[in-house]
Amino acid sequence: DNPYYDACVRFCERWDQRAFDPDYDTLPLETFEPMVRRLFAEPKQKFV
Questions:
Q1: In whole angstroms, how far apart are CA 31 and each of 9, 26, 27, 36, 37?
Q2: In whole angstroms, what is the distance from residue 18 CA to residue 8 CA?
Q3: What angle do CA 32, 37, 40 make, to 5 degrees?
Q4: Domain map of the chain by residue range?
Q5: Predicted TM-score (pTM) of this structure
Q6: Structure-derived torsion over alpha carbons of residues 14, 17, 23, 26, reported in degrees to the nearest 10
């Protein structure tokens, strides 16, 4: 019933599912924690 359903199915078939490689050597999330903490440590300037 959703007008975007078919487009979503095509996207998943062509691009999304192919992006997942179960054999890819990924880093654990803990590797990124210091970077995320630094990013959010100080308030940023407000863009208007």
A1: 33, 10, 7, 10, 11
A2: 14
A3: 125
A4: 5-41
A5: 0.46
A6: 110
Going from the C-alpha of 34 to that of each of 31, 38, 44, 45, the distances in angstroms are 7, 6, 18, 21
Number of C-alpha atoms within 13 angstroms, CB side, residue 47? 0
Structure tokens at 12: 């998943």
In tens, the pLDDT along 3-36 reads 999 999 999 988 887 778 888 888 999 999 999 9
SS3 47: coil
Tokens representing residue 18 in the block: 């192919």
